[in-house]
Amino acid sequence: MPGLPRLRDDYDFVIVGGGHAGLQAGLKAGLLDKTAAIVDRGPKYSRSYYAPKMDNLPGFPTGISGHKLLDLQTQAVRSQEERVGLFSPARASAVVRRDDRFEVTFDWLKQTHVARGRAVVLAMGVVDRIPEVGGKIEPIFPWANQAIVDFCLLCDGHELPGRSVAVIGDDAFAARSALDILEFRPASVELLTHGRRLLGGASTEERTALTAALAERGIPVFEGTIGGFDGIREHRFIVEFADGSRRSYDRGFSALGWYDMHQELPRSLGCRFDADGFVVTDEDCRALAASDGQPLPGVYCVGDQRNGWNQIPEAWATAERAVIHAWSAYL
Ligand SMILES: Cc1cc2nc3c(=O)[nH]c(=O)nc-3n(C[C@H](O)[C@H](O)[C@H](O)COP(=O)(O)OP(=O)(O)OC[C@H]3O[C@@H](n4cnc5c(N)ncnc54)[C@H](O)[C@@H]3O)c2cc1C
Predict the structure, then answer these.
(1) Which atom of ligand 1 has the smallest separation from the CA of 313?
(2) What is the CATH number of domain 11-127+258-329?
(3) What is the pLDDT of residues 67-116, one digit of tens each?
(4) Is the pTM of this model over 0.85?
(5) Beta bridge partners of 226
(6) What would the mean pLDDT of 12-19 be, rounded to a whole number?
(7) Ligand 1: which residue has its CA nearest to atom 3?
(8) Res 1: pLDDT
(9) Number of the ligand 1 atom closest to the C-alpha atom of 22
(10) 11-127+258-329 and 130-254 share one CATH topology?
(11) What does the domain layout of the chain look like in residue ranges?
């Protein structure tokens, strides 16, 4: 068992979030002989923790689960424990700039602490919205845990050829996801709006265009309220509607977008967000200011929280870019 980290007076980096991006940022800082504090709520809050099998990661030809990969990354960070402290489970509640330092306030071991650093790396990720049945998110968990229901088209689309797919969602993102799934040559795609009107919040122009595209590509829409799921033993996704009808699919796909984009801390630092709510950065992952679009000195954003592709290789690459930039520019 590794010992508890000791909080230093001052760090080169304070990294908020220790998922795939934050852990990689911490590892890189250590390898560059810099100090870092990683403040992380815990792996159960990482998006990938519930991903049973990920197939796109070099070095794992038969795939690897999200929690196993987080374990391996954590071990790598621990190898740098002389310079890198991993504070977890610890929740960051505030970040402020004071002169040439950032102060990150966090709760850890039932006490409030402050980590000071010359650069701050925001790596809090985003949290998926989970389909609710009767006001609860738990009913779909068994299907999600067995990868019968997916959340990430770029991650799991390759599993869909020849399969019947139910897409859950009612807005433009859901309609576009249903259309995008056709790229993977499924046997069929249906859109389940779960009691909501399809594209109810969209502009007339967007609604007309997407409704026409769905019809043209043969994607039927079912607006009934979902009452439950069945078929787990047969490895199927059977949707039971409140009116008693049932529809059976090989796979489900949740296209509900994000529940939490962790905007509070970046907003307090003056970061700019794009139209979808992601932090806007430049190529070096420097966060840009909401006021004038210029890089905020010393503020970086990496992984899913920044505007880019929400994938682990991207989380790693953005973490490397940010740390190397800060190393060469500030440290
Ligand atoms: C079901 C599923 C399957 C996926 N499959 C794949 C795949 O096959 N291949 C692939 O490349 N990608 C996959 N992804 C995407 C991948 O999970 C994300 O791209 C990746 O997790 C992003 O890493 P991150 O570090 O940015 O965020 P996360 O891994 O989500 O980590 C964010 C971290 O921030 C911490 N945090 C949040 N708020 C605070 C706070 N206030 N204080 C302290 N810590 C905080 C959390 O505890 C968490 O550990 C999948 C995602 C899902 C949901």
Answers:
(1) 11
(2) 3.50.50.60
(3) 999 999 999 999 999 999 999 999 999 999 999 999 999 999 999 999 99
(4) yes
(5) 241
(6) 98
(7) 51
(8) 46
(9) 25
(10) yes
(11) 11-127+258-329, 130-254
CA distances from 273 to 64, 103, 180, 200 (A): 32, 22, 25, 25
Q: What is the pLDDT of residues 286-301, one digit of tens each?
A: 999 999 999 999 999 9
Structure tokens at 140: 């779909």
Name the region of 17 (left: φ>0; alpha: ψ -120 to 50; beta: rest): left
Q: Name which CATH class applies to 130-254.
A: alpha beta
List Cβ neighbours of 106 (8 Å cut-off, separation of 6 or more).
39, 87, 90, 91, 92, 93, 112, 113, 114, 115
Tell me: the pLDDT tens digits for 39-62?
A: 999 999 999 998 989 999 999 999
Q: Return the best residue to mutate from 278, 285, 312 for the ligand 1 pocket (most ligand atoms within 8 A of CB).
A: 312
Beta strand extents in the chain (DSSP E only): 11-16, 36-39, 84-87, 90-98, 101-108, 111-122, 127-128, 149-150, 164-168, 188-192, 221-222, 226-230, 237-241, 246-249, 251-254, 258-260, 286-288, 295-301
